[in-house]
Amino acid sequence: MTKLAKVTEFDNDVTEYKLMEKEVANDFLMGVIKLGEILLRQRDKWKIQGKWLDYLEVIGKHVSGANQFIRLYEYSRDNMKQLTDVNLSNWNKVNMFLALPDEVKSSLGKEIKGEDLPTDKFREKISKVDDLPKTPMVDECSLPASTDSLDFKELTISASMVDSFFMAKELLKAFKKEGKTFSNNCAPIAAAYIDLVKINNTFSKDGSLEKLDALEKKFWKKLVRTQIDLLEKLLSK
Hints:
By secondary structure, the chain is an all-alpha fold. Helices cover 68% and strands 0% of the residues.
């Protein structure tokens, strides 16, 4: 007779998160807030025991992504009306919203008034709010302190819910703070790099690349290689 493995408290907590994750698609904002509440509780528990990173690995989350869930939940506890007014219906909006100063969040809600805007229109509303810079600033804690140790993988994973050009501009800001005089003309290539890393992370995580047959792999490898070779030539001029 096969002996059943003992279900631990850790296993139950992983299951709780994964079950709630499936429900997020039905109600994005409330689902993410609920996931944030779960992550906050379980971070407090497993961080003390030194298993927080193990927990995140099992549920397929990175620290930066988990922190965004938690930040949204913490903000919702006292500001649910503002969240309803800005109508955060996708992760692009969530990340742009959380990057704003608190006093601007309220003004943005009054500007949007609950309308479900496309992401580009949402960004336009942000730019119209009084005293708001054209490009929202990301909290200092969300970017590495030194460009010598910039974790591009972590940065691009955290950017998986944000448009690449937005994150590329934030990356250039981080470089500038460290004295590297990269112009905004670098934004397109920074965005392209971020997209490539995100694609690699996706393939390595979900195993979909292994499902391609030899002909498919050969076809896409040739196309990608051609574009990379062309970019290398342009950069060598």
